[in-house]
Specification:
about 50 residues; mainly alpha; elongated
Length: about 50
Amino acid sequence: MAGLAELEPDHERSLALKAEARAIVQSIANAISRPDLRHAFLQSSEVSAVLI
């Protein structure tokens, strides 16, 4: 979804897609109970790119 946001010509829609992608990532991270796995997930290049 974040990748599609980069291709979206409508700036407002692009921002909305990025926000939705961040919310999805945060939801997944919050569901990971082990701190080490949560940290690894959030530090992965694909995920950290969404959070920027």
